[in-house]
Structures are given as C-alpha cells and as structure tokens.
Amino acid sequence: MNIGRIQAIFVKDYKEFTRNYAVSTMVLLPLVLAFLYNKMGITGVETYFLPINLGFTAVTTFVQCCLIAEEKEKNTLRGLMLSPATLGDILIGKGLLVFIVSAVTIALTIFLSGYEPANLLLLSIGLIVSIIFYLGLGTLCGLFTKSIVEASVFILPVMVVFSFGPLALTIAEQYPILKIAEWLPSAQIVELAYKLEGLYTLMDVTVPILVIIAWSIAAWILTAMIYKKRMVD
Amino acid sequence: MTSVIEVQHLKKSFQSENALEDVSFTIEKGEIFGFLGPSGSGKTTTIKILTAQLEETGGSAYVLGKPAKEMKKSSNRNRFGILTDNSGLYTRLSIEENLLLYSKLYSLPTSAVKEALDFVNLYSERKKKVSQLSKGMIQRVTLARSIMHKPELLFLDEPTSALDPVNTTHIYNGLRKLNEAGTTIFLTTHDMSEAESLCDRIAFLHNGRIKAIGTPQELKKRFSNDTITVELKDGSSHYIENRTHEANKLYEWMKNEQIEKIYTNEPTLGDIFMQLTGSDLI
Q: Which part of the chain is the ABC-2 type transporter transmembrane domain (chain A) (predicted)?
C-alpha cells in the first residue's frame, strides 16, 4: 500500500464529492430526522437508532455506492485499475472520504437527537465497525451496478433491509422467520446500545461487536473478489 | 533486438462470435507498430488482451517479456501507458486536477504534469473543467495522461481520431520524440496517412486475422502492379507497364516533347487493404 496514492484518491474524491450536490446533500437526511425526533420529544434507544441506522445506509452505503457507480459509468475506475495503484490503495482511498463523512454525520446525528450513550467508548467501537461494514456494502453495490441511475434503484431494497430491519422484530412473534433480522448489523448495534444502558457482562458487548465484525469481513472479502473480477472485461 | 510484444496464434471468442481467429506478430523494442483495420476487426480486443483487461481464449501473448496476464500486477502497470476511446476522465475536475491525480498514482513529480500538458498543447487551458472540453481536447488530455510517466510501451487506440490537423501534427511530433527516447508504440488506426507517416511497420487486421504485415514500403512494393501513368500535353492519359517493350512508346513521347506528367502507380495502403480483403477500412 502507498500512502501517497491513497491520499491522491482521497483528495480527488473530496473535490468530486463537494461538487456533486445530488450525492453530498444525502448527509442532511439523518441529521434532519434526528433534529425532528428531538423536537418532537421522542426518546428511547430504538428511536435514537432510527436516524443513526438511516445514516449508515443513506450516507455510508448510498454515497459510497454512487461514487463507485459513477466511476464505472465514466470509465474512470478502469483508469485507476490500469494505474500502479493496488487493490488496497484504491479500496482504502475510495472508502476514506465516505468513512470520515459518515463518522461526522453519525456524531452529529447523535448530538442532534439528544442521545447520551451510557458508554460512549464502547458504543463508538460498535459504530466504527458498523461504518466499515456499510462502506463495504456500498462498494459492493457500486461494483454490481453500471451507472448512478442503476445504483439508486439497486440500493433501495438494501437500504430498506439494513435500515429498517430491526423494525421487523416487532412483528417477529407472528412471523418467526423475521427473527433472522436480529442478526442484522443494524439490530446488533441497537442491541449493543441497549446493553450499555444497564448492567452488562463482557459477553453482552462482545457478541454484537463480533457479529458486526463478521458482517464487515464478509462484505469486504466479497468486495475484493468482485473488484478483481471487474478488472477484466 | 528485443521483443516487446510477442503474440502467437492468439484467439478470442465472445460466446459464439470469434473476435480474434489466429493472430501472430512480434514488435521489437523502439518500433512504432501500426495495427490497421476497420471497426470490429479486433484491434481493441487485441489491446485489451495485451493490457490484461481481457483473457485470451487461445494462443499466447507476451508483453515486456512476461505473459500479458501479468500486466495486471501493480509493478508492471507503470511500464506501459494506454489510450483508448473510453479512457475516462473526472468531469467535475479540471484538466490539471485530473493529471495531478495520475502523477501521484505513478509517483511522479508535479513537473510531469506541465511536461505532459505541453506535449498535447494544453498548458494554457489547464484550469478548464473537463466537462467544458470538446471531444478533441478530451482526447488530448487522455493522451497526456497515458504518456506522462514515459512508459516503455504505449498503446494508442485511434489517438488522433477527434483532432484537427494542427494538433494532429503536434501530437505526431511528440510521439516521434517519445519514440526516439525509447518508447515502443503500438498504434491502432484506420487512418492510412497516420499509419504511413508514423509507423515503422504495419499489420492489416480483418475479421480477426492478420492479412499482411511489413513496412509501408515493403507492402507497397509487394502489392505494386509495376505500372506508370503518362499524361500528355494533348490531355490524354496512358497507363503503361514498366517493361522494356513499353520503352519505345515512352521514348517517342519524350522525343516529341509530348509529356506533361509521369508517375508510378504505387498503391496506397488503402488500396492494398482493399486488394487483400475486398472491403474498405472504415
């Protein structure tokens, strides 16, 4: 890996992102939702995590997916692939901007919703691992699609499943199959936040973080495989 | 001489369609090699195989002494440059910002950007956004990007197809200088004058097969019908064979000061292609 190349891709993405209002304004979505919930006086861990989980999908996954899809649409991704930049340089360089934007957005979302986590350090670990997972998911979706228009359609069911998956648990009594949703990263981060509000054991906090790490590893392995396939026509 | 590209019995099929049937050629270090053929003849497919963007169905391809597949490796990618018609640029960025990115990817000093912009005659336009550029200017920026790291081997797919005559001449001069400095150039085109003016050797590709290969002079000689045309002052034109038995005719016309013009009927590269394939190059 080469820091200079990663930095060059990051700077390029920053310039493109700040000049692409259709994509960059997506960061407002979770912020507005968090602000409104706060003003309406709606509280509770599940409520706080609605805008947070929306931030993961609408900012991290959606923006990353659009950035990759646009590179494919304009054939610039092939240009990067034909340069001396390695798989690591390109994937890290292309993920770094969205990682930073997501981290800032999630922090602001927490602030605007009025959520005060009982253990900010442990929750932050869970949130960072979540961003890494959603970033992998966005890259993967971007690699699967050929244009921004296609990406915006392709991403919708992914956003619904991963943002609102935990809501499925409320009707899991009637439809037991929906219990599978408790293993989604979005449900696991809520689970972690819940546990942190009361008395918890080491296992209570380790399991959700490990589940999200497992999702992240799976997403990035798949991303690397698809990326290598995309290097060849 | 060392072979920079060595292709033997290369085949490429897309489902039931054969893009390349049996292609063999060798390019030596320092050559400018022209690959001529109409659209769909397999020129771009060959470049894609040689730059590891496509895998061959059969045969073998070696680039810079290594199997073409190894051009995927990061360490080999700074040894070649490539310009294709779909080489993308970042449209929200300026010309200079696009080239700065690539100078960093190739670990080059910033001065390489100016040098590349001078090569394509675009230094004064460097602050313009790519979205505001004409097709010809985009092609020049892409060319600048492909040569800025001074590669050992340069693949150019129709490099001047969208350029005006002034910039075409400027690019030709630049490519000759680059070649003199040691860059081997693999050029695809369907522009005969481009091939004739730039290439040391050319190959005619048609329906995925090489029909002829050689220097432009060799090919013209090989396909020459050895005739001359004599135009007389009375306006008549005579097509005569370059043989002893026609010498008397010529002698008579010269003795009577009847000759207006006299020239050999050397075939153009386009004529040769037509003769070989029965079709035009476009």
A: 37-224
